[in-house]
Amino acid sequence: MSGHDGAIVTPDDGTPAASATTAGRHSPTAVPATTAEHHGPTAALAGTVPVPPVLVRDYQRLLRLFPYTYRRAHEAEMLGHLLDGARPGQSRPTRAERWDLVRAAAREWLLAPLGATERQRSSASVVVVVALTALLAGPATQAVVQAVLAGAADPRDLSLGGAWSAWVPVVLAVVAVPLAPAWVLWWGAVVSLFAGLRRTALVLSGLAAAAGVVAAGALVSAERASVAFQATGWAVALAAYVLAVLSITRRTSRAVGARAATATVWLTAAVLAASVPRSVADTAEEGVWVSAPGYPLTLAATVAAVVGSVAALVAVRPVRQAAPVLGGVLVALVVAHSDLLWSGALDTTAVDLGNVLGVVGLSLAATLVARWVVNRLDELAESRAAHRALIGAAGAGRGASRPGEWAAV
Fold this sequence. Notes:
This is Membrane protein DUF2157. By secondary structure, the protein is mostly helical. It is built from 14 helices and no strands. Helix 8 packs antiparallel against helix 9 and helix 9 packs antiparallel against helix 10. The longest helix is centred in the C-terminal third of the chain and has 46 residues. The protein starts with 19 loop residues before the first helix and ends in an 11-residue tail after the last helix.
């Protein structure tokens, strides 16, 4: 965890916390004999070296920065390693230790929606990538088609002259479809990820999410209310995709397995086959400046659909860890494409930044609630497994009954 140079490495392989013996040997007044050799011969003979209680207290305060589920599994182990690396006479954590612990805590909070352990995050990130790739393929392709058609339009009304004339199609495409750069970058990230280029996929997905945020902000500034409101939902989905790619990038195994890749291809092909032909026909007939049709569901139907979808994700154990992230994305997309928060339902020229932030807030709230439910279900499953193991061990200790003997029922 912590070396003499102050570097902190937190346990992220999903291993259980240190045992009570290992954790208990690092008392506030002593350090283990295994690390006493660098404290001097007297300490080596005594077996323990005094540790200032204030150092233990400061380490524990820094460890409280980590999420609760992560601390429950790794706090004792991390504290033991920090005390192992303490220098003789050290009474406060070093600046390097503080910085490394704060950075590691920020990383754990960032990845917390995907689970508390690497095993949970590994399964959740793959499910999120597969689901979001299929979900976003349709609108991404539609936006790119619209941008191409807009760029191929007659540019006579936009005269830039000189070398700038070559940028006229790009300007027309971005003005018509502000999210087009984000979708192009996202498609590049998808191709890179399934090609095994993890770092490239992470960079491209991060740029795509940033482009989505910039596009939403530009639309708010330009007072294009409905488009800005819808773009916020897509920006949340792109941010969730970055989170999943970040988790995959930290893995040592293959980025996406064969089964996940096959499922992604089939789901994406089905979505494109159902959405792209109609989108191309509507765009060619009506033009790129026509807004999408109104949201068809009532508020009650929308709430029922969202709650039912999230509950189904939580109930299915193989995809349970991905439910918080996918639930947050689903809430953002549904709210952004409805008139629940959009002030444009009353005034088509009104732009309220609070409405845009409300979409993000509702998405985060849904993610946190779903994560809490999943964590409680995991704890319940662990308790049941431990109880069954205890009953099995007790039954094995008593031995099997011989034929003819009475057995309790």
